[in-house]
Structures are given as structure tokens and as C-alpha cells.
Predict the 3D structure of the following.
Amino acid sequence: MQVPFLKMHGLGNDFVVLDARPKPLTLPAETIRWVGDRHRGVGFDQLITLEPASDADVFFRFHNSDGSEAGACGNGTRCVASLVLAETGRQNISIRTIAGLLGAERLADGTVRVDMGPPRLGWRDVPLAREMDTLHVPMQAEGVGDAACCSMGNPHANFFVPDLAALDIPRIGPLLEHHPLLPDRANIGFVQVLAQDHLNLIVWERGAGFTLACGSGACAALVNARRRGLVQARCTVTLPGGDLVIEQREDGHVLMSGPVATSFRGVLDLAS
């Protein structure tokens, strides 16, 4: 079966996009892993499938490159929202995901802003393995400890450090992703506060590993930094791939804006 696809990215956080609205697609985990293989397939951080929605303009389904399903993907939502905004000719659309209902809009400068909704801060929401304060979670690894955790539709654990360059992230990232306190694993964010309106962030992404950018991770970093009194409500978050602007409104909703790009389009031969 031959299926058209788009390759998109937001700050280098890259996605394969499939449109299953005209015809449903069945994608076994082994097929997703093959497409995600950067040597034998196309390669991606997440695979995003567009599906029909009864209570929104579109349904987005996210899969990681290891074949697991993700509840949210901020940069991916921005990228694919830009397609639907162009398709409909509208300035605003609603998006259903397994994590909830999101809104997206195109700004005057051409960037796309997504309302990621409010964070969920309870220990069951993250989730953690047992009841504890999610602002101070005792997760130790070389050079880090005391995580702040939340859910942005997917689980995040943030470690605030004085110097990102001093961390061996490829070593400690997988250890923390699979920490016993994280029964569903988590996206691990290492955060350096540069100013009250500027964060530096590197994310070890659940199911994908090191990534150039992580939109929901940038949202979580701002939320947890605010919970610890380190930053104001609107920040530039600098990731290896570039900058996102994250803002938390008074009602708790977290807004993310940044650029999107289409790299190329092609056809997958799913029978091969």
C-alpha cells in the first residue's frame, strides 16, 4: 500500500505526517519503527496521523519513533495545525487529541500558536509511582536531583541546573526516563535559567531520545520554573534547534508559538 506523507519540522524537531481522513490507516508498531528508522525508513521524532473528529476540526494522533503512542506533541501540533489552517483558510481551528481538546491560530507574523491547555500537577496526573509533592521529586542521577514534574498531556520531569554544558545528557537521560518513580516513563527536561524571561532547555524525549526541540517540554519547563518562582509568565525558551515563546495565562492555559517548516513530501510503500 502506497501512502503519501509530508516531512515537517519545528526547530528541527521532525515529523512524518500522514492523512488518514480520506481512508483509515492501520499502523502496527513495527511499521512505525521502520518508518522512524533514519537509515532504513524516513526518520522522525514523532509520526502524526490526521483523523476525522466529531467534536473538532481534526484529530491528531502521535507516535514516537519506538512505536509507542504519545498523548501530546507541541511542536508537531503547531506543524500540522499550519496545514489545516491553510487548508481551511481560517485563522483558528480546534484539534482533538487523546490528551484533550486544543486550539491553534495563525499569528500576524506567520507563526502558529497553540493553546496546550492547563498543566496537570497532581502526582496521579504525571503520573508518579506514589503520592508525593510534584514540585520536589527525589530522582537522582549524576549531577542532578530534585525534579519538578507535571503533565502537559504527556509526562514531564524538569531538572534545574546551573550549567547545561556540564551534564552528560546522553548518559543520564535514559536513566531518568526509566526511573522507578515514573511508571509511564517521562520526557526529561534539563533547564538552565538565563533570566526571568529566558530559559535554556535540552530534552531527552520519552520514546525518541535527544531532540532538537520539544514543544510540550518547553511548556513544562516554563510551568515548573514558575512554580519554583524562577521566571515570569512569558519566556523565550531556547532549545538546540532554536527559540519558542511560551506564555502561561492567568487561567493556567499554556500558549506556545514558533516557526514551522515543510522539508519534503514523498510516498511510503507500506507493503515493503
Observations:
- The longest strand covers residues 2-10.
- The chain has a mean pLDDT of 95.
